[in-house]
Structures are given as C-alpha cells and as structure tokens.
Amino acid sequence: MRTTKNPFSPTASDEPDRLAEIYRAAAQIICEKGYDATSMNDIAEAVGITKSGLYHHVSGKRNLLFNIMSFGMDSLEEEVIIPAQVTDDAEQRIRSIIRNHVHLITSRSTSLGNSPVTILVDEVAGLTLAQRRKIDQRKRAYVNLIRDALSKLKEEDKLRDLDVTAATFSLLGMILWLSRWYKPQGRLNPDQLSDEVTKIALSGLLRQEP
Amino acid sequence: MRTTKNPFSPTASDEPDRLAEIYRAAAQIICEKGYDATSMNDIAEAVGITKSGLYHHVSGKRNLLFNIMSFGMDSLEEEVIIPAQVTDDAEQRIRSIIRNHVHLITSRSTSLGNSPVTILVDEVAGLTLAQRRKIDQRKRAYVNLIRDALSKLKEEDKLRDLDVTAATFSLLGMILWLSRWYKPQGRLNPDQLSDEVTKIALSGLLRQEP
To answer: Does the global pTM surpass 0.90?
Structure first.
C-alpha cells in the first residue's frame, strides 16, 4: 500500500507527492462538510484541478475515502510504527510512539485546529465492508504494538497496578484527541506538546523511580 | 433546553423518555451509516415508528442532529457538570468529573463498542452555523470547568509541572476516547474502568503525596 519514490522515473516520483496533496485537501473538505455532503466537484476545486483530472487519480468517492485512510495508516506506519520497532526496550518504545505520533498529528494540523486525515481514519461508515476490514486490521496492529509494550512493562514491574487494555486506550485517547484540538498557531509548539503528553502519560502509566 | 418531568401531566412526563429513545436510536444509526446517508425513513425504522410519527417529534434531519447533540450536552450537564460543582475542592471536582463522565459514556455504550450520542457531539459539519455556535459554547463551558479546576490545583502546587491546557485536553482525550472503544460485554465493568482512568489521570496530572 505504501508508495516509494523511484529515482529513475521523474513522473512516478512526483505522483506520491501529488496524491498526498489530494488526500490532505480532500480530507480537510470532507471534515468540514461531511463525507456524503462533499461532491467530487468540491474536492477537485479544493485540490485545484478539474474533475476529470481528479478522476485520473481516483476512481470514485468511496475509493478516495479508503485511499485517504490508507494514506493516514501509511504515515502512521512510516513515522510511528517502524521507528518504534527499532528498540526492544519497552519504555523507549512507548516514548518513541508518543513523541512520533504527537509529531505526526501536530505536523498535519490545519489552522482550523484539526488534523483531517487523522480524524477521517475513524469515519469508517463510508467504507465497504472489505475496505473497513483492511483499515481495522491495520489499526488493530497498532493497538497491539502499544499493548505488547505495556504488557512487557507490566512483566518488568515498571507499570503501575493497571489493566493493560485500559492503559493502552487511555494513552491512545490522549494522543489521538490532539487531532481535534491542537492549533499550530497556539502557545505550545509540537516539541513542547510532545513533552507535555509524554510527562502526563508516563507519570500516569509508570511506577515512579525509587 | 433541558426537559423536566411534570408529575401532573402523564403525557408530558412520557415525552422526555420517548425523545431520549428516539435520539439514542437515531444517533446509533447515524453513527453506523453516516449522517447524510441516513434518511428520516431509516431513523423512523430504527426507532420503530412511522415516518409521520417521527415528524411529530422533530421537524427535520438537521434539527434532529442538533437535538441529539443538545441531548448529549444536557446529559453531560446533569450527570457530570452539576454534580462536579457541588464541591469547591479542585481535586474532588476532577475526581467527580472523571468518575461521572466515564459512567455517562459506559452506561450509554452499545454492544458495537461505541457510545453514539457522545460520538455524534463531534459531528458538527451537519449543523447550521447558529446551531454549531450553541454546541461549541456548551463544550467550551465544560472545557473551562476542567481547566479552572486544574489551574486551581496548579496554584495549590498539587499539579505536576505541566501546561494546564495540554493537561485539560489530555484528560478529556482519555475520557472521550472511551466512547469509541469501550464494550459493555468486555472484561472491565464501568466501576473498574472509572477506577483505572482515575488512577492513570491523577497519577499523570498530580504530584505524588510526599
């Protein structure tokens, strides 16, 4: 599902960037107007191409929605999941997940105070059942990555006396909710915000050093 | 906006319950199908009344969406905001907010693992601008209640060295995310879950007792 740049083909190499632009612009207008109320015309206008130009890139609105979600999950994989797997240390893994996921969301935030691609990843009502299964499976893999790291911390007696599932979703809630309130023009920059969330989450989840 | 039962009028006294039923059933089907894809016919069917019966209660789909959100905010006010204001102690107020808001969400969760009314409160794209302002104003009042309590804890030197806004939204994220993952048939009952969230949130936000 991920697209990689091919240095030998300039056309192919521009395509991923163009697609990313289309997905981001489409996500933003879908968040503003709602999925069903947004027409392919609206999206073409937001992207700044003709409707037939848009159909050159995507075959229809439902596939576009699925592509936006897959694009969101690709970014999560590249910028959060893969870097987290570099270390085997569970605490370092959790720290890496928080820092990179906060950065992923804040770097994609619009001035309206939301991160449309992240929000859309939850709008599964517009998908076919087969598409929904694919997205759900990728989400589950991410949940499991976090849960496994917290389980390991529990085994190492570093986790507070907590239920691992409740801890997993509390952490995810803290991070994902950012996509609905963080404004780039606000007081905290992405680094400060990632420090704040790291402090709250780790103090909440981990036993204090003796 | 809140409706109160009138003990002298059995009809008036049944109306709020019937409306609550309609709002919950409508919220659930809107969450499943998406707002625009859901017809008044679908909603009437889900509620188990005729379409004209449904129009007896609500004047149209957009107003229904607004009514569902207002109903959600009414529940929040009655079951979370007002009880929190009983105490002036900031830590007790935060504890009360966590416990009651977790209970509000878990008690409304369907077996599909979501709390449709809570989720819909964020689907503001379907509202008129005036309706959106009303809902936003009520949400802001709730955010401020939490922020003020955390500011007071900061003054009392009970809060960790944290930015109050980041702390407010991290807490809200932990609680509100429950509406998207908690399944009543799961391992944790609402009391246990509210204990878990309280532990994570308070350990994350407050300095430890010396």
So the answer is: no
